[in-house]
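Dear support,

I submitted the protein below through the web form. The confirmation email said the job was done, but the results page showed an empty box. After a refresh the structure appeared. I'm attaching both so you can tell me whether what I see now is the final result or a partial one.
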Amino acid sequence: MRIQIGLLRTILVIGLASFSMDLAAAQTYPTRAVTIIIPFPAGGNLEIIARPLADRLSSSLGQPVIIENRPGGAGGTVGTKAVASANPDGYTLLLTPAAPLVTGPLIYKNLGYDSSKSFVPVATLFSVPHMLVVHPGLAVDSMERLASYAQANPGKISFASPGFGTQPHLLGEMFRLRTGANIVHVPYKGATPAVTDLLAGQVQMYFDSVALFLPHIQAGKLRALAVADDNRSDKLPGVPTTSESGFPELQGAFWACVAAPASTPEAIVSRLNQSINRILQSPEIEASLAQFGAKTRIGSPQDLTRRQSM
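What the results page shows now:
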């Protein structure tokens, strides 16, 4: 009995010491610059939030917050691995879409991290529906006509993606399987080079977010065929949904989050979550995201965990 009581006392002391250390870390954090790693090239969907978030987070934390793009292909898994192996002290964070954490582990072997064990969730940032666009040189104005053209011209249609295992890649493959057409997948190291080649006509179709395509659609450089959601986009009310177009299963949304290396003190994660949520609630950030058809997603780290498992 005495041994058990002694053991309980030891466990309690260790637990209190750990809590005290976490609390002390949060009270002094940060004392130097914080780096947010984006595992894709600059210019993609994350740009609509990355720089404004870093600027406001710097003011909130009282230290510089630096955005570092660390691409490398493989669906963002290279930069993600760099964060997984970083010190869990709150000074290296990950800003990423779902692919490296959700679909990447299902496609790639030996990633160097376990998405369920190597990270702790910090906050969800925003979400925006995906959509299907084509180069205007392609003489189709609907998903049905695109399917018919692809079936009649095997191998002549190629679709872009920002990398294997990303949601745009999966949506493109679903379209290919659904239509039975011979469509060629062309993976890129991020969304920026994919859009560049799409605008040049090197590839003909591309699923990605409304936010990414909206300026090019408005400029007449891309043709929108469908929004991959149940509802039409407020920014593109004349564009039908994939359900209205006869492809109800082709739905998806781009969402972004912030995560930290596993074992990052809970008190630091909580402070970051609260600071980020306050930033997302600012009218300026909400208005900025709304320009691209995106919406803020305010919640707890546990909400992000649930989103990843959906």
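Response: this is the final, complete result; the empty box was a page-load delay. The radius of gyration is 22 Å.
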